[in-house]
Sequence to fold (591 residues):
Amino acid sequence: MRTGSDSMQQTTGNLVMMRRMARLMKPLAGTEGKAILCGSLGHLFAVWSMMAAAAALIGLVADWPPLNGQWVLWALVAVLTALSRGVMAYGEQYCNHEMAFSMLRDIRTTVFDKMRSLAPAGLRDQARGDMVTVITNDIELLEIFYAHTLSPIAIALVTSLANLALLTWLSPWMGLAAVISYLIVGLLIPILSARPTFKVAMQERTAQANLHSLLLETLQGRTELAGLGALGNTRRRVGAATGQMLDARGRTSGRTIANDLVTNVVTLICAGVFTLMACHLGSAGLVNPARGMIGLVGFLSSFAPLIPVARLGAGLQPTLAAARRVFSLLDKEPPVREVESGHGDPLAEFTGEEAKAVSFSYAGKTDTGKTDSGEHGGRISVLDGLDLSIKPGELIGIQGANGAGKSTLIDLLMRFQERSGGDLTVSGLPIETIHTVDLRAQQALVSQDTYIFSLTLADNIALARPDASREDIEKAAHDACLDDLIDQLPDGLDHLLADNGSDLSDGQRQRVALARAFLSSAPFMLLDEPTSNMDALLEGRVLTRLIERKGDRTCLIVSHRPSVLARVDRLLTLRDGKLVEEKDAMSCAVG
Fold:
């Protein structure tokens, strides 16, 4: 009973997924209509060409009325329909692929826009390899649906009805046999093959995403793995993940091969039965021999548009599994809704930020792994009644145990997350009403995770202000103590960095992030462990440069290093969801 219920839910879910994918095609409905028209005419021309050729041969070699003596006319019809078939086939393929690749372009744009709205807080639970799989392989698989599913189904339906009408006109018995054959091949086989294939297809997509995540982590951390002697264990993990992916892919391929075998066997059985029936009708005098022969040829050549539909039951399941993963990302709710111009308050300058009784909690997980956001438990509190006043020009330090909520506090101050309660204002304005673009212009973040793009060092720094002059970029690099790195690189600031800065040390990556913050000229800088990967001497130089170049900027530094916290104007400790101010920052940091 449970299996039947699960199968019904799976079938319903697949139908809902297909309808949702089809709705995205509305702007390209005209192109899809052209593909269906060309495809239907092409397949009908192919059938009619074979039937006309059979009529020409009968007229040439047999004295069967009413075809005797008319073979030239039927031969001409056969040639013309065959040539038209080629033109229509080209038109079908052109329109199908134009529509499919246009859809993939639009879906990728939608996915990137969604990821932008989710970042950064909404993507922290999404592995990088999983996201790479979604925006590459998963979206690429959708091409099967848009180019090889909707139009083939419509074409099979149109051509089957047309061929059925013609065969019924030739003989009602042939029409009855044709409708039964069409229903078996075009409807029954794809329905029966769809259910067992979807589960293994979903397992394959998940296994591939896990493998991609593991490979990315391994490549990015290969130096640390080698230094710790963990390459052997990592090789075993990659091997196991590869084995799981290949096993799932093998089972998916097995289902597809079985579906093809069943389709071919059933088609041959239907052809054999129809042939025997046509011979019987002809010998019993129930149908004119010429009509029976032409009907047989037409029936045998009419399966071409049905075969792709029969194979969709198994072949479409990986696409549906990929679509479910794509839409799962698109359905994620962003932690915050951006405020666009015209719908909120502009922010022209930064005059401070203030939090009063701010709290933040998130939904925990139940024993079953599902999110529980009910009022009776289930929510985990991180911040509770937190107060903080940040004034222009201050250098504030925040310390606290791991997991105390320091990074969460930065998320709230930058509105990457929405607070659960309390008031949070920037320059006297509620943070949730401020134009998001204006808010970002007033803030600069140096996070623990610095991403380096495959650009020159200068271009990586200029991400903070693309219109910055060369002189400004050089000054920002100098302020971030990058002079030694620039001297080491063959092309200096114009050196092309490797993917994600694999040719840089962690400390150098942190200094690139600081250079970006300096270049941004944002009046409020938030730094999360900005010197954690630097030695004491370099850290001292960076902090000295930060204080010297700070000017009237406001800086909030989250750190666990006493040497960093000893330089701040005010030191706050995050404990039990609240901030406690230390009276003597120097003594507390040293102690």
In short: Residues 231-283 form the longest helix (53 residues). Confidence is low (pLDDT under 50) at residues 366-376. The CA atoms of residues 111 and 273 lie 50 Å apart. The first strand starts at residue 353 and ends at 365.
